[in-house]
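Entry 0007
Protein: Elongation factor Ts
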Amino acid sequence: MSTATITAAEINKLRQATGAGMMDCRKALTETNGDFEAAIDWLRKQGQKVAAKRSDREAKEGVIIAKTSADNKTGFIVCISCETDFVSKNADFVAFAQSIADAAVANNVNSAEELNEVVINGAKVSDLINDKLAAIGEKIGVAKFEKIEAPYVASYIHGAYRMGVLVGLSSEAAEAGKDIAMQIAAMNPVAVDADSVPADVIERERAIIVDTMKQDPKMAGKPDEMISKIAEGKLNAFFKEQTLLAQAFVKDGGKSVGEYLKSVGADLKVTGFKRVALG
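Output (structure tokens):
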């Protein structure tokens, strides 16, 4: 049993350093005989235990940060998840998420796993997350990570950090980049154009169309060739609605996104995009 005398000042100092609760800090200092650094380690270990105990909890809330490098050639989306919107709306938690996203940009990381190993002010991101977990008592973590590189990348955050979008363009076009990012946020396209829709998505959509048509009494007895031809027409309608360049431009429904891009620059193209939302 510890015989060290723990003062209120020491408890407060540990609270300021870790964000943990007063009783947890008192216990940490007591368990470590007042050793400040050992107490920090003790709290981190407690955080890891909490993470294990809460591994079955769903962290559907959080903060999504989308940002680019200084030269706008690389974009990152980082989602720091938590369990409740009470935490996600907290200014300190938003700032915490911002600091991790800043570290992703500064270190040009390529994955969530790599980001967890990045050091911020002498501590790894994974340790900082454990500290924050111990302080707030909710399951948190780097839940989602996306990265895109292009001659120009635009970023957009929608709905109080609930969605992030990155758009890669073939050349610099800041206003167009923002417009296209907002389009992606609103319309959630599956791909840039029909040619870039994954084959499994096309086959799934085609199968749904064909099965639906075969169940329609009006199509009873129709030859498979006719059904297949009609299905291809419906699939083209799917491409028009679900691929970015074919979609109606939300800011001017009289033109498609592809036509809007051509009005900005004849050679301006979307090279890729990423869209991350909570839930």
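Curator remark: The chain has three domains: 8-53, 61-149, 194-277. DSSP finds eleven helices and ten strands in the chain.
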